[in-house]
Amino acid sequence: MEEPILRYEKIDFLGEGQFATVYKARDVKTDKIVAVKKIKIGSRLEAQDGINRTALREIKLLQELQHINLIGLLDVFGQKSNVSLVFDFMDTDLEIIVKDSNIVLTPGNVKAYTIMTLKGLEYLHQNWILHRDLKPNNLLINQDGILKIGDFGLAKAFGSPTRINTHQVVTRWYRSPELLFGARQYGTGVDMWAMGCILAELLLRVPFLPGESDLDQLSRIFQGMKNLTDYVQFKQFPAQQLRHIFSAASDDLIQLLESLLSLYPPS
To answer: Which residues are catalytic?
Structure first.
């Protein structure tokens, strides 16, 4: 029987994190180009079978979820010191596109990326899943321009009124006010707020609220968000209208942005 690892011929190194290495490969059985994420196996204290909880969560969710705007998990196989996840290969991500000044982002592009992300989120939320780590470099784009939400290491089921969650999720710049205040019970609003920050970044071509600490993040939010002035007693700043910040954006995008960056976002 052929070893699973032999099926995937390495082509190029793509990146490395604390617990995982990602490389581009060719599936010799189908000749398809894929991405292989090799995750280091932790101690048995970390999770069942020695595989860290993040990897287990990602595998379990991606095996159950299928949508055109979610990254596809094609295969899973293990070795003594690691477990490998095989994904659709994606050519780029939204962070790279936003930062590349040579790429023109038309209003149509902004709307298309926003709609595809929202469709993926809608599917997740309909299946009672929070992504909890939405940010531009987790929004992957293939050669056909299709956007797929990736990296489900922090994703988690929601819905129980008694479920206690960690507030240390979502990269700070995309973290909602309730998470910054330490909320342990929350819902789809954390993903929708992050989506609002991403839409703002698409329009500005720079991060909208790049806080240097949780306190600084809250300060930036309260300076820029007029609709949050009643949320808590905080140092008073002259609130700005989003329409003034995003003066070139169309009315429908401004309306969407205001609904996403709200205490009562659309579910």
So the answer is: 133
